[in-house]
Design goal:
Layout lengths: L1 H16 L16 H7 L2 H32 L6 H9 L6 H11 L7 H4 L14 E7 L2 E6 H28 L2 H9 L4 H12 L1 H16 L3 H6 L11 H11 L3 H30 L1
Antiparallel strand pairs: 1-2
Length: 283
């Protein structure tokens, strides 16, 4: 069943991406890599690759930093730890669609947080901003950090940081107290204890968090679709949204299949080496 409904459909998608089926009427004639060449010369797809790269880097970095800091905080045996733990974990119970709608309201330029910022002379455009930070021309697009994508990163980090907190907290609780006491007896400060001993011991967890978050960010669709859509000048567009609109609204099935295969390969670049190393480590 897995071979048929997973690998079989992956093979079918790859076959369609090499065809000329770009209308409601199937056309199975061989097109070679024409659809892929079209994509990589397409302004929208180039913008999608830029947005995905920026989103992935900012998202993973923020999740790791916040996850470590909050896990270390919870590991201090604070009063009300269970309350804080539930607060940090709660967003994970929501779907990305719910998160997207909520943060769309919060970052609405006419309402939301701007109601508190306007008296201070601040008026953010958030996900409607079309500016590119540190931009330079690359191909057909301006490569840099789209300001609008930062609002999406905030929403994604809010939802997924709880996962990193759970991972790091489990790792911290697994480190024997003797390790900490030995470091303190050797004169290590608390900063040196965490920087040189605790965090290196948590490196396998960090690798797992990076792989899982990269898997989520590279195929992100529902959060973007619910919160911003492609955005003006495609500043918040991602391959998942482009694939959906190309395939199911434009009926360009071969082009949509090509986008799906590029997404699959980008995820495989992260997942396959991790699975191979885990398999070798387990044996």
């Amino acid at each position: 069943m897995i071979f048929l409904f997973v690998y079989g459909f992956i093979g079918w998608t790859g076959y369609v991406s090499l065809s000329n089926w770009n209308s409601l009427v199937p056309d199975w004639s061989f097109a070679g890599v024409k659809n892929y060449l079209y994509l990589f010369h397409d302004f929208r797809f180039q913008a999608d690759l830029r947005n995905t790269l920026v989103f992935t880097v900012l998202f993973i970095a923020a999740v790791i930093v916040l996850g470590q800091l909050l896990a270390i905080l919870l590991d201090q045996k604070l009063r009300g730890e269970s309350l804080f733990r539930n607060i940090f974990f709660f967003p994970m119970a929501l779907s990305f669609v719910v998160t997207g709608v909520v943060w769309q309201w919060l970052f609405n330029p006419s309402t939301g947080v701007n109601l508190f910022l306007k008296p201070l002379g601040l008026d953010g455009k958030w996900y409607t901003d079309t500016n590119i930070l540190f931009g330079f021309h690359w191909g057909k697009i301006e490569f840099g950090i789209p300001v609008a994508i930062i609002a999406v990163v905030v929403a994604a980090v809010w939802q997924m940081t709880g996962f990193a907190v759970a991972m790091y907290l489990a790792g911290l609780r697994a480190i024997p107290d003797e390790v900490r006491e030995a470091a303190r007896m050797d004169g290590a400060t608390e900063f040196q204890l965490y920087w040189k001993i605790i965090l290196p011991l948590l490196r396998p967890i960090t690798v797992s968090v990076i792989i899982i978050m990269a898997h989520i960010s590279l195929k992100i669709f529902d959060l973007i679709y619910a919160m911003t859509g492609p955005g003006a000048n495609f500043v918040t567009d991602v391959p998942g949204v482009y694939m959906f609109e190309t395939t199911f609204r434009g009926n360009y099935y071969a082009n949509g299949a090509a986008i799906a295969m590029v997404m699959l390969l980008s995820v495989a670049i992260f997942i396959v080496p991790y699975l191979i190393s885990s398999r070798k480590g387990g044996s």
